[in-house]
Amino acid sequence: MSTTPLEHDYIGLSESSSVPRSSDKLSYSSSSSSCTEENYTSSNKACLNFKETELRLGLPGSQSPGRKPSHGLSLFGKDIENNNSNSNSNNTNGYAAPSPLKSLVSGAKRGFSDALDGVSRNWGLSINGKPDAELGKGAVLYSPRGGLDDKCKIMKEVDVLPLSPKPVQEKKNQVPALNENEPTSAPAAKAQVVGWPPIRSFRKNTMASNLVKNNDAAEGKSGSGCLYVKVSMDGAPYLRKVDLKIYSNYMELSSALEKMFSCFTIGQCDSHGLPGQDGLSESRLMDLLHGSEYVLTYEDKDGDWMLVGDVPWDMFTETCRRLRIMKGSEAIGLAPRAMEKCKNRT
Amino acid sequence: MESESKRKKESPNTAELAVTASFPDEVLEIVLSLLTSHRDRSSVSLVCKDWYRAERWSRTQVFIGNCYSVSPEILTRRFPNIRSVTLKGKPRFSDFNLVPPNWGADIHAWLVAFAAKYPFLEELRLKRMAVSDESLEFLASNFPNFKLLSLLSCDGFSTDGLAAIATHCKNLTELDIQENGIEDSSGSWLSCFPESFTSLEVLNFANLTSEVNTDALERLVSRCKSLKVLKVNKSISLEQLQRLLVRAPQLEELGTGSFLQDLTARPYADLESAFNNCKNIHTLSGLWEAVPLYLPALYNSCANLTFLNLSYTALQSGEFAKLVVHCPRLRRLWILDTVEDKGLEAVGSNCPLLEELRVFPADPFDEEIIHGVTEEGFVAVSFGCRRLHYVLYFCRQMTNAAVATIVQNCPNFTHFRLCIMTPGLPDYLTNEPMDEAFGAVVKTCSKLQRLSVSGLLTDLTFEYIGKYAKNLETLSVAFAGRSDRGMQCVLEGCPKLRKLEIRDCPFGNEALLSGLEKYESMRSLWMSACNVTMNACRRLAKQMPRLNVEVMKEDGSDDSQADKVYIYRTVAGPRRDAPPSVLTL
Fold this sequence. Notes:
The complex is a heterodimer of chains A (346) and B (585). With 346 residues, chain A is of the alpha+beta class. Chain A is built from 14 helices and five strands. In chain A, a hairpin with a 4-residue loop joins strand 3 and strand 4. By secondary structure, chain B is α/β, with parallel strands linked by helices. Chain B: It comes from Citrus sinensis. Chain B: This is Protein TRANSPORT INHIBITOR RESPONSE 1.
């Protein structure tokens, strides 16, 4: 099957990456969605180029063909960690809110029987007898019947389904199960077979909580020890992520960003400031706006776009949700505010 | 037994008879006390009445693989001198949430019987039992010589129960708490060990989550000079670990805490030297949230490692490869599939002594993930590690050819547990069933004791198993087979079969009833989501009074179908503690 190696190349996560794999995955998928949210003049071209290199950059919520719930064997899928986080290991695997899953379960069943063309044999979705699972009634419990003729042929048809090439966009769709800030219209959960794969509840819960922790950190919430925020740059075809916790002041951040985005020129302001000063001085700001093409801005937790450098570093790391390297011309509107603040301070 | 002793009396060899007759019981008991294997002891007890008697008086350890196969009364009546008990409770599929809660396997009745008959009890090892805090308190208060408590995959207790053990068991040498479903409310239990307490040799609380008092832990480690095994939990930082290591250079097995911490140069150097100082460490685990940056501190310790458990550490292939280069003596390795095939290649290249490999999936429920390991990694290991005999391998694709190559390289498999995670997945290159893969396994590996099959399988797999797997004792089957014939082949063909667990297979009444004679020679049979009816179960129960036939009912399901069937042999009769959802027929 040639699709598998292609997908490997596509993900292209290098071995030397020290970022935990799941957050890497997330950053990739979220960057692909943000790319299309912003209006790049050259973005369309860039995105198209990406399509040629096999990136799928559909708008968030769009689904590539064949991604409906009934496609393929949805025998098991994402464990819904949110619901599972409080349960003890003895409880059943997490299920999402019962109603969407119920319809999903029956959808999956329909899809399956469609695929089998009336062959009576189905893989049952056995739901554990947990009393409060409304799924218990709605779910289908049926056992395969034996004595089928021409089984091999039918099984071949059926089993092609799980191997069918899946667009990479599906990767993104697993994010919403764990990630409240990135809504997509992907199915809430795939129907899951109880107790399969056979992994002890303890191990399942431990790995699940590790995954959630990585996602929290990736989304910029105060996690344990890292604070990743997205950095976008106007005109750049993809975003980056930086861990704000590894820097201790604006100078370190901007030089790191400078390295990341080679045409970034805000680094000019580094050498002129007084030592120990957190904010940018008025003179530097003017240099910035008149001299360089780009401005570093950030979105704070109120959703406002602010100029980087106004507030002390610690406050900045606590309120910054994402960074954007904006074209200088677009940042003019921000300048008077910032300058006024500087004036008030000095 | 009667006939055998008669035969002895009628034996023409009178000299032999004289020897047997003049052999005092005490001597016989001493001789028999040297026998440790349970099976040998069972055989011995069947020779004649004298030997039966001697054996029962000399037995100090007992292993009960199914707690319902015998009652506490029967046990204590037969063996008056037991000091060590191992009990296993729930069916293995309870680990995967297939068994209803409150199913049973409560330890309390046993403890009450032991308090009366074995007040000198020293060791208790429990697996998949229901254990309450009350039981742990009872245990702590009623057995003054109690030394060893091991709880694996148990549930029902909390850290309060552990506090009782720590407080009252003055002679405790081992406390091993693993993978239990417990309520971890606080780490204060550790502080309950009195300052005068020094006998601890094994302490494993790696799977608990609450923070413990690190000062108390340090003091405990300092004063327990015989401590050989220390496995701490995630709450212990690297710096704290270093302080513990300095106080216990004699450690042989270490489970680290969290390996994620900002270490500047000096603490890192201290950590490295602490590790270097522990020259006896042969087993290493933990490494929660390991940052690869600090792994080199372990490199020197790795030289002597025989068992490395990285199954909770998500390492990538590159960083793992760098580590494994330093572990040439490794015999057992547990890892996550984040190391991918490249990581496994590194294992093949660096660990020629490897005997056991377990590869766990980091994201088992993620269908779309394209990482993890494939058949290539397994093949790579088989080329480099010819002594491999135990494997547990979770993967998303496999081929018949790969498995054939693997067993050709490693024909000594005793445990072959392959889990292709998508149910019913065929050979991804040829689209054929995986029958030939498992056929190759059973044909080539004559010593095979345990087998777990997966992937798309027809009855042919089971024909192969029945025909070739003559030493097979445990078989796990899921989403496989085509007809009753599959299960019948296994029941007819595998003479040593003890445990058979089946789920989601098209095996029905005919298959179930074909094993009528067989089940008494087995420990247990589990069948769930198959095609078995209540009537067939009733018939089985009626014809085989020494079997317990239990059916677990789900709410709202068809009354004539038997959703989950658990059948086991017993001398204790039907159990009286079954919950309403479990019907004993």
